[in-house]
What does this fold into?
Amino acid sequence: MLILSIRTDKPEAEVGLFANHTKLAYEVWEAHRKLAESMHTKIQELLAVHHKNWSDIQGIICFQGPGSFTGLRIGLTVANALASSMSVPIVTRDDQSWLEQGITALLDGQNDEVALPIYGAPVHITKQKH
It folds into this structure.
C-alpha cells in the first residue's frame, strides 16, 4: 500500500511516502506562512522521485495535533480533499508514534473518513470591531 503522511502542526511541515511500513521518502521544510503554497509541490516532488502519480496513493495518515490552528487547518484540509477525491482511507493520530500507529491502522483497514484536528486549547476568536 502506498501511503502519504502529512504533519503540519508547527512551522516545519512534513510529508512522507511509505510502501506499507517501509519509508520511501520524507521531506521536512520550513513552511511557516507558505504552507498552502508549498504543500502540493512537496508531495508532487516526492511522488515524481519515486515514479509515482497522485492516483498511486492508497491511504493517508495525518498528525492531528495538538498544534498550530492554521497549520493543522491547512494540512488536514488538503488531506481530507485528497482522500475524498481519490476515494482512499484516511486516519489521524496524535502522539509521538503517530506514523507507526497510523500506518498500522491503514493496513488493518481502518478509515476515519474525515481527519479532524486537535488544537490542544480552545480556539481564541477576537471580537468583531464595531
Q: What stands out?
A: The first helix runs from residue 35 to 49.
